[in-house]
Amino acid sequence: MEAGDAVARLVRDEGTRVLATLIRVTGSVGLAEDAVQDAVVRALETWPRDGVPDNPRGWLLVTAKRRAVDLFRREAARSGKEAAAMPFVEPEPAEVVADDLLRLVFTCCHPALSLEAQVALALRTLGGLSTAEVARALLVPEATMAKRLTRAKQKIARARIPYRVPEAAELPDRLTAVAATVYLIFNEGYAAAAGADLVRAELTAEAIRLARLLASLMPDEPTVLGLLALLLLQNSRRDARVDADGVPVLLPDQDRSRWDRSAIKEGVSLVGRGLRRAVEPDRYVVQAAIAACHALAPSYAETDWDAVISWYDVLLRISDTPVVRLNHAVAVAERDGPAAGLALVDAIPGLTSYPWWHAARAELLHRLGAAAEARTAYRQALALGMSEPQAAHLRLRLAELG
User: Fold this and answer.
1) Contact 230, 278 (CB under 8 A)
2) Which of 98, 102, 206, 270 is deepest in the core (most CB within 10 A)?
3) Domain RNA polymerase sigma factor 70 region 4 type: where (predicted)?
4) What is the pLDDT of residues 235-272, one digit of tens each?
5) Are 197 and 387 in contact (CB under 8 A)?
6) Cβ within 8 Å of residue 92, ≥6 positions away
């Protein structure tokens, strides 16, 4: 990795933690975002030239705090009010930073906001995703997402939503949005929607860390157990998912000896706990059970597709979304053949702007020997945008068709 890229990743990773702390100090999401953005720009300008500070987070925190004070005074002067003193922020220990991250999740996921706004705001602030990346993750236009984020920040300020981890009795009301947020942060890290890399390891690590924090708060909650299990099982394949050149290695071709067996063991154990504690099927526990089927198969050829499809049938009863239908169709294609899978894929509504619907069609058409239709579908997938490694893989498949 180039030195400049390493610095950029460090700044992005530490910037999220600094933002979480600065929101607590300032009480303003917008002010904290502006101040941290300015500090990030300064770091990207100076660190490659002068070297990374001994305490990168402390440097960013102090720089962002000073910028926040300037912005705070400027706004006070504009409104004709006297600026109150803002407490000085010293670099804080890791456990305080972790608490700030969790506070930020729960602040973004307050019931006063719509579920869509909760998840979008948490992805933007906590996950560090751009507005465009959040829009792609939630399958909405970028302009719509920008307006949604602005309204959410304004409502937090107007409603004086507290920046804290809720009391135990309040946790269940927040869990749906919090779990969705952590899951989507992981997804963006596991298979980036854009950029030069397939994996953004800082996001997958952040999501797993947050899932563990949630598990410490709610150790018997099936949703939390399933969420953590799912992330661990998916992430267990990280070392086998790309080759030495950064090209994606698909599941059938992965070297399973490189999978993280300790993560698989923990994940499977959590699936069992989640299944025992769930009164009704839980979407994250069921998804983790599907991931466990893949993790425990000795080889791709020995995957228990009956079990996988059975779990997808359960998932469709509790979370019948177009993306779940797509994944179910792909599993059916593995068991019953590409024609059966393609019939299900073509019957799914609402995914024409989703590149992986077109990619799935292309692959199944490719297997069926429908070269012309497969070429069209591959091109449609590529036109909708994805990370460069994913695009490179689809271009290779397209080239195979001549």
Assistant:
1) no
2) 270
3) 106-156
4) 999 999 988 887 889 999 999 999 999 999 999 999 99
5) yes
6) 21, 61, 100
